[in-house]
Amino acid sequence: MQFSSLRRALHPRRPRAAFPLTFTSGIRPRPFSSASAAAARAPPPPPKDAPDAPPPPMPTRRWEEALASSQRAFSLPLAGRVLAASATGNAAVAPPAVHASLALATAGARGATRRQLLQVLGCGGGGGRGAVADAANVASRVVKRVLRDRAPSGGPELAFAGGIWADASARLSPGFVEAARDVYCSAARTADFLNKPEDAVKQINLWVQESTKCTVTSLLPDVSIDHNTGLILGSALYFRGRWINQADIRRNASQKFYCLDGTCIDVPFMEYDRSRPFAVHEGFKVIKLPYQQGRNERKFSIYIFLPDTHDGLFDLTKKIFAEPSFLEQHLPTEKRHVDIRVPMFTVSFQIDMKEFLEEMGLELPFHRDADFTDMVKEDEPSGPLFLSDVLHKAVLEVNDKVIEENLLSMCVGKPSPAEHFVADHPFFFVIREEVSGSIIFMGHILDPSSQS
């Protein structure tokens, strides 16, 4: 694979702009090049200014279309499976982070292995260079523009980590290592799985800590590494943002939250009233709470889907994940004056995606005869390269530590809200970046007092 072409295509030199994030432009981005095995063995191409130089491969679709396709075909099915299997506690998944790690694996794959990865990622099963360009185009833009931390500018705090690790016996291709860093903002490294498995675990966890500024402290607490371990693919995403101002708070005190088992607990709630996008549907309500925006174009919001009944969460999520367009069709657009009461919560959720990806049709990459030849140097001996684990961790905080306890504002003369949104029982939520339309988190809260 000619990874230098990949880097050049996705990183054209351009002048600095006042707003570095632009998703709505009609200009097609320069594509990245993913050469086939035959092309990798071919003689070097002529200089790019030569009249007979072949054009670089183009993505098969505009990036917005490719993003929408990946969310329908990959993000929603994956999140639906993960959340359905996590019905006993709080759970959250960041599909773009998992997508980016699998797109990185696709860049090092060949043949049927690559075709199956592309199929699951929503890029079609043809396995052509244009489909690989689609996957890399989406992953690179989302990681660099949507998931990039710009907290110093006043927006939400984000921390992304993605990477792939092979045993120390493998000689990774320098081009693949550089493409992982430059295109996917990820790492491609080796660790001694065979002789020093405990050190390998420590090495990977330390990398995650450093990559996320200690907001995510581990990725491999329970996964064993031994001589049977192939490739470990990992991703993590941390998010914390403020969606209310202290002056808006009417009260911040403990209230009752009713759990699925019929018990109730006292947890801190934030209570205020504002005009917010709000919708009432049959059996549930949805509210949009915009996060404080930084000095850039990104706009993040959390959408909370609240079933009418205390035990209606899983019936609601079945509807959400049964129809790809259901979520988008039920996002609120009309603003109403709403009495809002939402519990503060923190979710730290970790899972191995392998089983869920296999259910979605991803099988070959987990077999010992998988073809990840483009990850390693040519003519270098190496053991079997196959995926052993696809690890993922999502950490997000929906709270505001600067708000003082029992803060009370009398709001004299303020009209009473016409609508009420009281999230005092299990609910589903989505965190979305509005400019790109990227859904970066999906999850459910069963007990706000629990952080896992």
UniProtKB/TrEMBL annotation:
Residues 76-448 form the Serpin domain. Residues 42-59 have a biased composition (Pro residues). Residues 20-61 are annotated as: Disordered. Gene3D superfamilies: Alpha-1-antitrypsin, domain 1, Antithrombin, subunit I, domain 2. It comes from the Eukaryota. Residues 28-41 have a biased composition (Low complexity). InterPro entries: Serpin_CS, Serpin_dom, Serpin_fam, Serpin_sf, Serpin_sf_1, Serpin_sf_2. It holds the Pfam family Serpin. Belongs to the serpin family. This is Serpin domain-containing protein. It comes from Urochloa decumbens.
